[in-house]
């Protein structure tokens, strides 16, 4: 298992080859990109099997490849760790990532920059693998920044469109906010513990004061919110839809947005040591899952509905890792199941766009099931999975998190459990609305413009394979993952559960609110929706404007920063530059005027000497007489 560094090296080498060879690789470069991730997935499976064959306490392989940062007492090696937690992420990244790569061959078939796209795609996968395989926080941060760079390149891939270029910059800048929090947390770890290795931090966290662990936990949470698109740093994630649809699927299902959940799960010793830090994680998850669901109800762009769905579903994962104890595993089960059905939904949306000349407005669809039956069937299974109907995967992954939220002591159990239940009802509503308006009801598209048709096999085969995961992954994961992850979370103690509602009651409540949400959406939209904008209430207007999240950021951060920048520029131009330029003008003007006294005539010099002598004589007389 000492060769598991190849998991990173293979896609990274593929990206380098595709970028360095340039147009020489245009004809076959995309297949190299697919092959590299496929080989990485095969290796990941073999390493997973080897790891599974070891005793539970020995399921960990660690290697230090070379010194990375040795400055004074700071000793950081380029080290990697393959343990049960990193293994499940590696399988998700390479497995689902491979299917998305295959799909992208067909989706990007007519793009002249397809080779460059696959180079960035491979770079994205390599960076995410480094993030989850690093054995210390510096390696995690290295991969963290690599993911940020690759996401910028992919979101703004069609940079000639202003919207894509702006979305890429927005994602890059908002992620920098979170990255700053993560970086400061790493600095504090080294300053207080003298190490940034996972094992060293886990051993030393008991020596830290509650204030230090709270500071580190909150700073890690800021980093996680930035990368996973959680409140208050969620605004970049829906705009990331400006990139090609395979990018959306890779970001939302297998890579970038799961990084924040991984960070908190990997840092469980820090959060276990400080219940206040855990409470903040729970609160952020609950706020975000409701916010994302409300906004998703009001969107008409098929990809943006799914984007806000991701924001909401990641909120469930944050809720789980914040609850601690056994809920760590529940959050990761939902993360893995979400990887299957969300990839299926995004790739299904791309298939619809492929057959509808890149139309994204669900009000312009309708009746597409007759023309795109494979896409309809696979999308339908993913829809049933995400809303959590049994026996599909979302039921086994989301319902236990709702039950765990109700088990939280005191009034917070009712608050967070109620929020999770409300999110389930809203998810059923907006996802049913999306499914019905897209595939059912009367057709609302123009035959002279759109000619719906099924996508080619290279796009539909990944959809079919992901549909199997949407159906069965939840049950399989729920029966195997908790025991598999026990060595990673062995220090996570179960709190005293309040048991406000029995698990059976929570299960029935979840099913009832899900069915009611879906039936309401079916009743409202089975006959279609008006193409002309209708008068909307205050809540709908707020949801369409993302609950004023962008307006808040613009008012509180962007405009004050803009005004401050303008004031500093004015002060620099008129103040500092004015002082320097004024002194220069004074010296230059004075020297110019003094230069005029140098006439070259003896009479002028004699007159000046006489004047000087008279001044000296007068001064002497004044002094003597005084």
Helicity level? over 70%
Radius of gyration over C-alpha positions, nearest whole angstrom: 31 Å
Please count the beta strands (DSSP E, at least 2 residues each).
Answer: 2
Derived from helix and strand composition plus strand pairing, the structural class reads mainly alpha
**pLDDT averaged residue by residue:** 92
The percentage of residues in β strands lies in under 5%
Poorly predicted ranges: none
Sequence of strands across the biggest β-sheet: 1-2
Major β-sheet annotation: 2 strands, antiparallel
Order of helices and strands: HHEEHHHHHHHHHHHHHHHHHHHHH
Task: Please give the count of helices.
Answer: 23
General form = globular
Terminal CA distance reads: 101 Å
Give a written overview of the molecule.
The chain is mainly α. It has a domain at 282-534. It is 72% helix and 3% strand. The chain has 23 helices and 2 strands. The protein has helices spanning 6-21, 29-52, 84-107, 114-133, 137-155, 162-193, 198-204, 210-228, 236-239, 245-254, 259-266, 268-272, 275-296, 302-323, 327-355, 373-387, 393-406, 411-439, 457-485, 503-525, 538-544, 549-595, 602-625, and strands at residues 61-71, 74-82. Strands 1-2 form a two-stranded antiparallel sheet. A hairpin with a 2-residue loop joins strand 1 (61-71) and strand 2. Helix 14 crosses helix 17 (393-406) and helix 15 (327-355) packs across helix 17. The longest helix is centred in the last third of the chain and has 47 residues, at 549-595.
């Amino acid at each position: 298992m000492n060769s598991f560094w190849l998991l990173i090296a293979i896609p990274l080498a593929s990206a380098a080859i595709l970028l360095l060879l340039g147009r020489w690789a245009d004809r076959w470069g995309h297949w190299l990109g697919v092959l590299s991730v496929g080989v990485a997935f095969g290796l990941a499976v073999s390493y997973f099997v080897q790891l599974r064959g070891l005793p539970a306490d020995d399921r960990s392989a660690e290697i230090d490849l070379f010194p990375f940062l040795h400055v004074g007492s700071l000793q950081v090696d380029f080290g990697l760790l393959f343990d049960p937690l990193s293994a499940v992420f590696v399988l998700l990244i390479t497995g689902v990532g491979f299917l998305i790569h295959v799909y992208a061959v067909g989706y990007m078939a007519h793009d002249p920059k397809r080779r460059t796209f696959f180079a960035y795609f491979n770079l994205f996968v390599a960076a995410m693998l480094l993030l989850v395989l690093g054995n210390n926080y510096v390696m995690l941060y290295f991969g963290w920044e690599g993911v940020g760079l690759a996401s910028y390149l992919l979101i703004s891939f069609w940079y000639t469109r202003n919207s894509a270029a702006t979305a890429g910059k927005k994602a890059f800048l908002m992620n920098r906010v979170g990255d700053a929090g993560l970086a400061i947390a790493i600095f504090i770890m080294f300053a207080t513990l003298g190490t940034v290795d996972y094992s060293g931090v886990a051993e030393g966290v008991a020596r830290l004061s509650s204030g230090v662990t709270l500071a580190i936990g909150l700073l890690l949470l800021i980093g996680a919110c930035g990368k996973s698109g959680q409140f208050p740093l969620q605004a970049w994630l829906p705009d990331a839809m400006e990139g090609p649809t395979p990018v959306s699927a890779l970001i939302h299902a297998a890579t970038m947005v799961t990084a924040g959940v991984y960070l908190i799960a990997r840092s469980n010793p820090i959060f276990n040591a400080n219940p206040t830090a855990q409470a903040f994680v729970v609160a952020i998850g609950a706020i975000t899952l409701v916010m994302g669901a409300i906004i998703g109800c009001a969107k008409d762009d098929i990809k943006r509905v799914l984007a806000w769905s991701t924001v909401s579903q990641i909120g469930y994962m944050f809720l789980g890792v914040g609850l601690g104890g056994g809920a760590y595993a529940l959050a990761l089960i939902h993360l893995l199941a979400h990887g299957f059905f969300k990839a299926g939904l995004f790739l299904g949306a791309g298939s619809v766009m492929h057959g509808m000349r890149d139309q994204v407005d669900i009000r312009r669809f309708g009746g597409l099931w007759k023309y795109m039956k494979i896409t309809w069937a696979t999308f339908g299974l993913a829809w049933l999975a995400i809303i959590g109907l049994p026996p599909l995967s979302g039921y086994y992954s989301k319902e236990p998190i709702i039950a765990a939220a109700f088990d939280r002591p005191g009034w917070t159990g009712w608050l967070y459990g109620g929020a999770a239940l409300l999110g389930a009802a809203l998810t059923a509503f907006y996802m049913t609305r999306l499914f019905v308006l897209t595939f059912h009801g009367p057709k609302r598209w123009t035959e002279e413009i759109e000619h719906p048709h099924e996508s080619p096999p290279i796009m539909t085969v990944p959809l079919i394979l992901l549909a199997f995961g949407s159906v069965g992954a939840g049950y399989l994961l729920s029966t195997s993952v908790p025991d598999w992850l026990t060595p990673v979370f062995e220090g996570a103690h179960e709190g005293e559960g309040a048991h406000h509602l029995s698990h059976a009651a929570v299960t029935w409540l979840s099913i009832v609110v899900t069915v009611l949400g879906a039936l309401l959406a079916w009743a409202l939209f089975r006959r279609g929706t008006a193409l002309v904008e209708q008068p909307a209430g205050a809540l709908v207007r707020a949801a369409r404007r993302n609950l004023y999240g962008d307006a808040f950021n613009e008012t509180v951060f962007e405009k004050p920063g803009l005004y401050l920048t303008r004031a500093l520029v004015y002060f620099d131009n008129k103040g500092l530059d004015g002082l320097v330029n004024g002194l220069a003008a004074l010296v230059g003007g004075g020297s110019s005027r003094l230069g005029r006294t140098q006439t070259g005539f003896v009479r002028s010099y004699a007159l000046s000497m006489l004047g000087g002598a008279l001044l000296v004589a007068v001064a002497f007389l004044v002094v003597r007489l005084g």
